Structures are given as structure tokens and as C-alpha cells.
Fold:
Amino acid sequence: MAPFLFAGINMAHIDIIIGSTLGAAEYVAEHLAEQLQAQQHSTELHYQPDLSRLLASRGADTLWLIVTSTHGAGQVPDNLQPFTQDLAKSQPKLHDLHYAVVALGDSNYDTFCAGGRQVDQLLEQNGAQKIGDRLEIDVTQHDLPEDAADIWFAEWSQNLS
Structure:
């Protein structure tokens, strides 16, 4: 995949949309924000994401990075449910939006990373353009999910330059 240049510059604004129940996705999101800032990208963390606000504020150099765990029987966490419900209901045209997904889950369940897969599918259905592959972190295999995110980030971030 060729690198994606945001508005012809080497910096992007990344809205990091977080879905977290127990905090692991939140920690991964904050860690990735630090990594992005170290590369001179601007970031904003959205712990209670509001779809209409995010749509209104996005620019040509904006990327959405969704970092979410899976809750219950395969749903996104409670704090992300209004965002995904609005996305499914309003079906905005997102052809000019670029995004990436980091999903956390427990492979002992058949709903492993279903929350992240759901958001990925919703964005794709609305025409958004995925940058790189979705990362699925099995929390049973990593003491610190941030370590798995670091490995993914080293390759994925090359798409931003």
C-alpha cells in the first residue's frame, strides 16, 4: 500500500475514538496518541465520541483511529454505543474520510474483537477509506496490549508519511 499524504503534507490530525469498558482500550489509545505526537501529528482523544461533532470538525487531513474493546455478547462498549448507533442510523457519506481500527478482545470467546469489526464494517459501508489492516489484539496473549499496538504502529504509521 502506498503511503497516504494528507492534504499534501506529512502531518495529519488524528481523532482517536475510544470504546472502553475496563480501560485496556483507553490505555492503548493514549499510548498510540503519544506515538503519533512523537511523529508530529496532532491528536484528540474522544472518550465519549459524538458523531455529529466529529463529522462537523473533520478536515482534509483528518483520520479517525478507532480503538475499541468488545463488551458483552460482541457489542462495542457502552461509551461507544451512541456513536455506532448514530453511524448506522444516519449513514453519512464518508468517502473522503480515512480511518484505521484497533480492536481488543479475548480469544476465549467466539465474539473475539467483534466490537472493532462492527465499527470497521459500519465505516466501510458508509464509504470511508481504511488505511492499513485492522489490528486485533488478543488480551490473553499480551500482558500489555500496548506492546502489540507498538508492533502494528511501526508498520501502519508508514502509511501517514
Notes: The chain has five helices and six strands. The longest strand covers residues 98-105. The chain has one domain: 18-109+126-156. The two ends are 12 Å apart (CA to CA).
